[in-house]
């Protein structure tokens, strides 16, 4: 629910209980900006704020589906400098993400992991009802591979953000979002599927 700003206070609460989190982040954008219009907290900054507060175990952060325009010649430099693994969308085109998720499971180990899924990680052909659509994104099948690939991890929380009903004329984005949330519930520890 809501825009990606909501993940910041959630991670504050989860990290208070579990310590620095691993993060599986699906998005078109890294959401590691510093500020916009003078504001340090908005939907493009939550993961920078989380890094600054020590809420993330940066060696266990993976961002999948990243793409889109940028004003910076190296838009993923901040993320890589923190130790994040950035998987641009073009590295996902025309292939299964099952092998990638095998690598991600090894990277995450048995420590606590949070899943944050921005619906704009998917191509707007499938999920047009979002405020910042970017072409050439992931497919719904790849989204399922990512989420199902988290089964067996120590998932301590998850979210799905950026569904914008006013742009979701067909209702397809909401339907897809609801299905992805159901899949996330199914990969929580001790859930029988």
TrEMBL record:
By sequence similarity, the record places it as follows: Belongs to the arginase family. Agmatinase subfamily.
Query: Recorded GO terms, molecular function?
Result: agmatinase activity; metal ion binding
Q: What is this protein called?
A: SPEB protein
GO biological process per UniProt: putrescine biosynthetic process from arginine, via agmatine
Question: Taxonomically, which superkingdom?
Answer: Eukaryota
Q: Which Pfam families match?
A: Arginase
CDD domains, per database record = Agmatinase_PAH (cd11592)
Q: Which UniProt keywords apply?
A: Hydrolase, Metal-binding
């Amino acid at each position: 629910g809501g825009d990606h700003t909501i993940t910041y206070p959630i991670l504050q609460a989860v990290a208070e209980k579990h310590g620095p989190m691993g993060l599986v982040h699906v998005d078109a954008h890294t959401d590691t900006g510093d500020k916009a219009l003078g504001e340090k907290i908005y939907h493009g900054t939550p993961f920078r704020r989380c890094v600054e507060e020590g809420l993330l175990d940066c060696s266990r952060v993976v961002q999948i589906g990243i793409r889109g325009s940028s004003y910076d010649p190296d838009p993923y430099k901040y993320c890589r400098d923190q130790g994040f693994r950035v998987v641009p969308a073009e590295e996902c085109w025309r292939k299964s993400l099952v092998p990638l998720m095998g690598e991600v499971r090894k990277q995450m180990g048995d420590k606590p992991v949070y899943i944050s899924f921005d619906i704009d990680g998917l191509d707007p052909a499938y999920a047009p009802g979002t405020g910042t659509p970017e072409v050439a994104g992931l497919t719904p099948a790849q989204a399922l591979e990512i989420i199902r690939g988290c089964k067996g991890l120590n998932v301590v929380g998850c979210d799905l953000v950026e569904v914008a009903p006013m742009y979701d004329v067909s209702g397809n984005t909401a339907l897809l979002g609801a299905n992805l949330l159901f899949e996330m519930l199914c990969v929580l520890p001790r859930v029988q599927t």
